[in-house]
Design goal:
By secondary structure, the chain is α/β, with parallel strands linked by helices. The chain is built from 15 helices and 19 strands.
Length: 470
């Protein structure tokens, strides 16, 4: 029986969504709005709340969205949707600290998570009874072809049968960046998961604290410590010592490529970026519009680079791109800048070779540039190394690789998918009803980590799916 015949006989399209954070909920919202006909949707997510994930389950009000709300709408055709919701719920303007000097709103991430969850609820209510949603609080452990569709095995022992499957989970919290002794692992002053709700409570306010990593996670943890009146010195380390940059002018009118063809080498891309940044800076606009213009043109630019050049970008330039592309909210930047200015926060270039503990302190062995090792003692250590980008650490993906349903992309950043987000199997065939979205597809598109990029891409793909269904 062909898929159209089977769906016609069943009467309802069955969709399974693996992952119930922002990406999974965005997919449900757009599939519900755009795909015609009755839908039965199973969303497989072990957490009780949908739409939050690690990003938007943060309880600290100092952890803010790092893009202004007018750029965080779930809908490309209604850019004020998120901001309007925040005003309707009286989160704005009541939370005056969320609005910067030029009127951009950077609300607490928990508020944005509430917006996503409420939009899901309203979308499903408007679509009932045509669309039904079941939340399966479990992990997906395996996917197998079954009767022209798919069968997803769950950690509960149950199975979900579906006509289409969308993989929408994000990256897990990264593991240890170095060997950690048993004594250190058992010490409550070592915070291995910085997103634990009570994680920082074990660190004395007078203690010196090592923050392992200098990216957005470090910015959040440092902001939390400073916000609760921490008096001890904060030392943030990473191999390059790069910190996420602050926001500047938002401009959507920069033509990144101009009359140029897309560069065919990593060095050519770097040269073009530098020329665009110089031109934008000479016009008094700063570097931000040039970087944003590259972001908007990235699918075309990235697609033109041969695999070897993409790998060169990943190896040599990705860290610099990330700190300019993924910026901190101005409130967080101001707090960090003030702390750096008065010496409460110090950023150093160093790796961490090992972490141990004694009765009095945690002991970190730092590897300085050039390879020299140095022992330092701290009253607390927070691992801020960001997400785990190795998909083989995910049991479901590892199993899909083993049976040939999926393969890694040519760059080694995630799963190989086509332009419509369909998974490409090990033998090179496109899986028409097995899709992947979000950060795991970054290697194909060049960028697919920020919520606005993910939502726009999902909306486009859902529109294509709707056109195919029609």
């Amino acid at each position: 029986m062909t898929e159209p015949d089977r769906l016609a006989s069943a009467g309802r399209l069955r969709i399974a969504v693996v992952g119930g954070g922002f990406t999974g909920v965005a997919f449900v919202i757009h599939a519900t709005r755009l795909i015609p006909g009755p839908l039965d949707i199973d969303i497989i997510e072990p957490s009780a709340a949908l739409g939050l994930g690690h990003a938007y389950s943060a309880s600290d009000p100092l952890h803010r969205i790092n893009v202004p709300s007018e750029r965080m709408s779930l809908f490309a055709g209604d850019l004020s949707h998120a901001t309007d919701w925040l005003f309707q719920k009286q989160i704005l303007p009541g939370d005056g600290a969320s609005t910067d000097a030029i009127g951009h709103h950077y609300v607490a991430r928990s508020h944005y998570g509430a917006y996503v969850a409420d939009t899901l609820a309203k979308t499903l209510t408007a679509a009932a009874p045509r669309v039904s949603l079941r939340h399966r609080r479990a992990l997906a452990t395996a996917i197998r072809p079954a009767d022209g569709g798919w069968s997803i095995a769950l950690s509960t022992g149950d199975a979900v049968e579906a006509d289409r499957v969308a993989l929408c989970f994000g990256h897990a919290v990264a593991g240890s960046p170095c060997p950690i002794s048993a004594a250190a692992a058992a010490d409550p002053r070592l915070i291995a998961n910085p997103w634990r709700a009570d994680g920082l409570s074990s660190i004395d306010k007078e203690a010196s604290v090592l923050l392992v990593g200098t990216g957005l996670t470090m910015a959040d943890m440092a902001a939390s410590l400073l916000g609760r009146g921490h008096k001890g010195k904060l030392i943030a380390v990473s191999r390059r010592g790069l910190m996420a940059q602050p926001h500047g002018l938002f401009a959507d009118d920069v033509n990144f490529l101009g009359d140029c063809a897309p560069p065919l080498t990593a060095l050519g891309l770097l040269d073009l970026v530098r020329r665009r940044v110089r031109a934008s800076t000479d016009q008094g606009r700063g570097w931000h519009p040039a970087i944003d213009a590259l972001r908007y043109n990235l699918p075309r630019v990235w697609g033109a680079l041969p695999p070897g050049e993409r790998r060169a970008v990943k190896r040599r330039l990705l860290a610099f791109w990330d700190v300019h592309r993924f910026r901190v909210a101005p409130q967080v930047h101001a707090a960090l800048a003030a702390a750096i200015g008065d010496g409460r926060l110090v950023v150093e270039k160093a790796g961490v070779a090992a972490i141990d503990a004694n009765q009095d302190s945690l002991v970190a062995t730092l590897r300085r540039p050039g390879g020299a090792l140095q022992e330092r003692r701290f009253g607390g250590i927070i691992l801020c190394v960001g997400p785990d980008r190795d998909l083989t650490h995910n049991p479901l993906i590892r199993e899909m690789f083993a049976v040939g349903l999926a393969r890694a992309d040519a760059v080694g950043l995630g799963l190989d998918v086509d332009a419509g987000s369909h998974l490409i199997a090990r033998d090179g065939t496109v899986q028409p009803n097995l899709l992947a979205f979000g950060p795991m597809t970054r290697g194909t598109f060049g960028e697919m980590t920020g919520a606005p990029d993910i939502a726009r891409h999902i909306e486009r793909v859902a529109g294509l799916m709707a056109a195919g269904a029609a």
